[in-house]
Amino acid sequence: METEKTLETERALLTLLTEEDLPAMMEMAREADTFKYLKKLRIMTEPEYAAFLRGKLEQIRDKRGFHWAVWLKDVSGEAGPVDAAGEAPRTFIGAVNLNPVAGTPMMQVGCQLKKDYWHQGFASELTRRIRDFGMKEAGLKTVYGLFEKENQASRRLLEKLGFGWQETRDEQGIILEIHKYPAP
């Protein structure tokens, strides 16, 4: 699977995750409720989560998965401040992914946002872009969405984007719903 380094939505730029993005990812991980419905990540220590992120960098490098840092676009159209290198500062708002589900041929979409960007339509905008990337640019026939059963927001989001329920699984005591696009 090949990909461009940068994807776009109406309000965001998505850049493949790099080592330089890891401090922003770690900061987001420290926010309250960021892993409320991701028990596997919620129970990790900071060093374990840092190792998890390095694994995501390895997936990108090996072309097994995609993980993007998400940056707010400057939609004002006005020239803003620049840093010492002449670059406009970027606002990190979250991350999205299209990566393999361990032990399966399934590729799943995921979205994580900083709390300040919840309830503003970003999850829908970003997940739609990654779903479309998977189908049109990565050549997948199916894109999956997995979430803990209690996560009603993820269910509503995936249903809104045309995903349909496929199955419910118990993964080491965590009840997961698996939805797929196109819907069965």
Q: How do the helices and strands line up, and which of them pair or pack?
A:
Layout: E1 6-8, E2 12-16, H1 22-29, H2 39-42, H3 46-61, E3 66-72, E4 91-100, E5 107-113, H4 122-137, E6 143-148, H5 152-160, E7 164-171, E8 174-181
Antiparallel strand pairs: 1-2, 2-3, 3-4, 4-5, 6-8, 7-8
Write out key terms for the chains shown.
5-stranded antiparallel beta sheet, 184 residues, single chain, 5 helices, alpha+beta, 3-stranded antiparallel beta sheet, 29% helix, 29% strand, Aminopeptidase
Overall SS class = alpha+beta
**Fourth-level CATH superfamily:** Gcn5-related N-acetyltransferase (GNAT)
CATH architecture: 3-Layer(aba) Sandwich
Q: How far apart, in Å, are the first and last alpha carbons?
A: 24 Å
Strand content: 25-35%
Lateral arrangement of strands in the main beta sheet: 1-2-3-4-5
Write up what this structure looks like:
By secondary structure, this protein is an alpha+beta fold. The protein has one domain: 3-Layer(aba) Sandwich (Aminopeptidase), CATH 3.40.630. Helix content is 29%, strand content 29%. It is built from five helices and eight strands; from the N terminus they run ββαααβββαβαββ. The strands form two sheets. It has a five-stranded antiparallel β-sheet with strand order 1-2-3-4-5, with helices on both faces. A three-stranded antiparallel β-sheet has the order 6-8-7. A hairpin with a 6-residue loop joins β4 and β5. The radius of gyration is 16 Å and the shape is globular.
